[in-house]
Amino acid sequence: MPWTQHVLEFSRRSRGFHLITSEVVRQLPEIDRMEVGLLHLLLQHTSASLTLNENADPDVQVDLEASMNSIAPESFPYIHTCEGPDDMPAHVKSSLLGASLTLPVRNGRLALGTWQGIYLVEHRNRATSRRIVATLWGE
């Protein structure tokens, strides 16, 4: 299978951790035909993140959001404040979590652990829609 690339579109979401594994797979039907391969995801934004984490207990999402808010609080004396009090903390959180993931594909499925899921993490209070460039390669 040759390299394929898609821009995945995600509607505006509230601040927090949003499980998007099924949405990613739904937008990439080529995965079904792959025996072995790699999927690289790049979020094209600086105030949101991608991460891989616990996908079963919703309390984890709440605790992760609370932890990130503790690490990068809006009350910190940031210099970059022209886009509002949630903007610079969003950049800090994005730098900590990252904007990309590389995931293995095996037997037509993402080869994730039993309790792993892909999260789009929204760090802004009033976010826009988000785009992820998905690059897929394999056989």
Strand and helix order:
EEHEEHHEEEE
Report the CATH C-level class. Mainly Beta
Separation of termini?
5 Å
Helix content: 10-25%
Shape: elongated
Topology:
Elements: E1 4-10, E2 16-19, H1 21-26, E3 36-43, E4 48-54, H2 58-71, H3 87-97, E5 100-106, E6 109-110, E7 116-122, E8 130-138
Antiparallel strand pairs: 1-8, 2-7, 3-5, 3-8, 4-7, 5-6
Could you characterize what this model shows?
This protein has 139 residues and is of the alpha+beta class. The chain is 22% helix and 37% strand. It has a single domain (4-138), classed as Jelly Rolls (Sandwich). It has helices spanning 21-26, 58-71, 87-97; strands at residues 4-10, 16-19, 36-43, 48-54, 100-106, 109-110, 116-122, 130-138. It is elongated, with a radius of gyration of 16 Å.
Q: Can you give me a brief rundown of this structure?
A:
This protein has 139 residues and is of the alpha+beta class. It has one domain: Jelly Rolls (Sandwich), CATH 2.60.120.
Task: For this entry, give a set of tags.
single chain; five-stranded antiparallel beta sheet; Jelly Rolls; alpha+beta; three-stranded antiparallel beta sheet; 3 helices; about 140 residues
